[in-house]
Amino acid sequence: MKVEIQNHVEHLPSALNGMTVSSTHHDPHMLDETCLMLSNLLTRSNRMASKAPTICDGTANAVDAKLSEIDRELSISVITEEDTESVLDLLKRFFFKDEPLNTYVQLGECKELEKYCTKSLGEHSSYKAVNSRGEIVGVILNGTIMKPQPGDEPPAKLADNCAHPKFRKIMALMDHVDEQFDIFELYPDIDRFLDCKIISVDTNYRGMGIAGMLTDRTLDYASRNGIKLIHVLCSSHFSARVMEKMDFNEVYRLPYADYLVNGEQVFDPEKPHVALRILTKRLDQ
C-alpha cells in the first residue's frame, strides 16, 4: 500500500544521510503535494460542513497560529528500530486514516497494519523527514523482495493469517494482485527489488516536497546497494502521480470496479482513486 503524495518536475540530487533541506528551495515536488493537501482539506471541510458553527470564534487565528508552528528546516535520515514508536505515531495520525482503502473500510486501530508497516525497519532502507524539534513529519518505508528460487515453498497468503476483518479485505486484494502479476516474469534478469511500501507525510507539512526528498533518498539507497529495480504499489491516484513524475512506469493496473468477490465490488473509494496500480523504475538503464 502506498500513500498519497505527489511531485512535479526535476529531481533533487542524492546526498549523504542527515542532509538538511530548507523548504525555501524551489522544490520540484511542490505542485502535486499542494494538490493533495488541498484535496485533503476539501474532503475534511465537506465532511464537517453540517457541524461547523457559522459564528466567528477565532478559528482563523488558531489556524494562523498552527501554521506558524511549522518548522521548515528539515533533515532526511535513515529510520532505525529505535524510531518504531514515533513512526507508528505518525502513521496512526495520517496514513491509517487517509489512505484510500483504509478510509473506505473505516479501518480504525489495526495491529496487523502496524506490523506490516514496521517489519522491514531492520533493513535500514527506510527514511524519515525530521524537523529541528526532532519530530518525524514524513516517512518512506521500504523493504527488499528477493526472487523465489526453485524448490522454495510458495509464500503464505497475506490474508490467511490476518485476524482483523477489515484489513483482511485489503490483504486479500494484495494476494489477488500477486496471483495476477509476477514482477520477476516481467524482469527475468532481476534477482531482487526494493519495494516502496508506504509514504506518509504529516498533513501540516504537505506541499513542502517531503515525499520527493524521501523518494530521492530511496533511489540513492538502491543505487548504492546495487539494487536495479524500485517497485511501488499505489492504491491512490496521488501516489501514482508522484511516481510517474519521477519517471516510474506503470506495469500493472487493476480498476477497483473490476475487483469482485462473489460477484460484488469490494472497494469503491472516493474519486480520483479508481484503480490500484504498480509502477516501477529501473536504475541500470
TrEMBL record:
Any one Gene Ontology molecular-function term assigned to this protein's record: aralkylamine N-acetyltransferase activity
EC number, as in UniProt: 2.3.1.87
Keyword terms: Acyltransferase, Transferase
Keyword Acyltransferase: yes
InterPro entries from the UniProt entry: Acyl_CoA_acyltransferase
Pathways involved: Aromatic compound metabolism; melatonin biosynthesis; melatonin from serotonin: step 1/2
Catalysed reaction, written as an equation: serotonin + acetyl-CoA = N-acetylserotonin + CoA + H(+); serotonin + (9Z)-octadecenoyl-CoA = N-(9Z-octadecenoyl)-serotonin + CoA + H(+); serotonin + hexadecanoyl-CoA = N-hexadecanoyl-serotonin + CoA + H(+); serotonin + (5Z,8Z,11Z,14Z)-eicosatetraenoyl-CoA = N-[(5Z,8Z,11Z,14Z)-eicosatetraenoyl]-serotonin + CoA + H(+)
Top-rank taxon, per record: Eukaryota
PANTHER family: AT07410P-RELATED, N-ACETYLTRANSFERASE-RELATED
Family in the record: Belongs to the acetyltransferase family. AANAT subfamily.
Protein name in the entry: aralkylamine N-acetyltransferase
Source organism of this protein record: Anopheles merus (Mosquito)
